[in-house]
Amino acid sequence: MLAAPTFHAELDWSLIRIVSPIATEQVEALMNELDRGESEAIILALELEADLLLIDERTGRDVARRMGIRRTGLLGVLLEAKQRGLITSVTKILDRLVAQTTFRIHPTVRAEVLSLAEETEEV
């Protein structure tokens, strides 16, 4: 498991709240294509008029795009964190994710992400 970043303790956890979508029938309809978690996340993004939805699964991203929801995945979060100086190496994090979790990334996508992060493969 990945260690928590050092800024973890500085976060204001009182801002975190657990919510469920109101439109349960819309969640059920999306479950023809997606699992419950993705379906609820998409409907909540619509209900809350979220600025951004964090979703990684291809089908979920496609459904969110069809519904006009702005979205990103873990790779987008890592690139943003690097740009803001919150992390120093996308490469190291990707290596740890692949080694220690079920996370997988296609070599072409990895190369593109590292290029955007202005990093090269560590040998």
How does this structure look, described?
- With 123 residues, the chain is mainly alpha-helical.
- It folds into two domains: 8-72, no CATH class; 74-116, no CATH class.
- The chain has helices at 24-30, 36-47, 58-66, 74-83, 90-100, 107-116, and strands at 53-54, 71-72.
- It has a two-stranded parallel sheet with strand order 1-2.
- Strand 1 (53-54), helix 3 (58-66) and strand 2 form a beta-alpha-beta unit.
- Helix 1 (24-30) crosses helix 2.
- The chain starts with 23 loop residues before the first helix and ends in a 7-residue tail after the last helix.
- Residues 1-6 have low confidence and may be disordered.
Provide keyphrases for this structure:
6 helices, disordered N terminus, 123 residues, mainly alpha, single chain, DUF3368 domain-containing protein, two-stranded parallel sheet, 2 strands, PIN-like_prokaryotic
